[in-house]
# Entry
Amino acid sequence: MRLIVKPNLAARAVYETCISRVRNKTLKEKFRQISGSIEAADQEYQEKSAEQKWFLIESSNGVGVVDKDDLEKIYTQRMAGQNGPGRAIYDQLKNSAANGICPLCGQQTVSTLDHFLPKSDFPALVVLPLNLIPACSDCNKAKLDKIPDCESKQTLHPYYDNVKNEQWLFAEVTETSPGSIQFYTSYVDAYDEVLNERIKYHFRVFNLGSLYMSNANSTVTEIQFRLSKLHEKGGKSAVKYYLKEEEESRRDNHVNSWNTAAYQAMMNSDWFCDGGFNEFK
Ligand SMILES: [Zn+2]
# Structure
């Protein structure tokens, strides 16, 4: 999970931009009537975000005189829609992730916006910038419309959860033929119980174990040639030395990237460094 700088966009202004081209006068008036409620929902969202307690926000079927279907359409047609008045804001949010990498998995390319609290159950938050996270389509689909029902079943929020300083993502080489690299999360003493549970939950919900495993296994096949040459010349210690340097570089970039964990697992396995790398297909 990667932290992203919070968008600095006023919720009410974003909402009003999105409804600015509604032609049906009755509908436009209804939309206008709830501007204050949209602003209040933003206030509540920020308060709950400060305590990482989004699960306390209540779901609803609509806001005031507007039902949830009409609110959902504000997002799908007027914000995400190619010619919608809110499209520039949509693009701005989508482009906020570094190098276009999805902050939820830290691996795949951003292709959409994910509603942290789903739009079908939280209509007041459909176009709330703080609830909209740039995401890849796999992460967006994996979460579906899951509603957090308790504190520990909340995935990590890239605008609010800073979990980048302590290592919690680890991997282990499975010393078999064919070989494999398996990922897992580990308890961090510096974090409280809830945050540790949420890290585990995030890893599970987004199926990060299988995504990282296929990337790591394929990385081994890419460096097999190099490792073989090193092994021929300097044996297992030459392989280990090379892997350690690669690990340090990845760790300097992101402590919890799959590459950091994968290189760490490779260099820590004597079996791998002593030729086990050839067992990867
Ligand atoms: Zn992703």
Q: What stands out?
A: The first helix runs from residue 11 to 18. The radius of gyration is 23 Å.
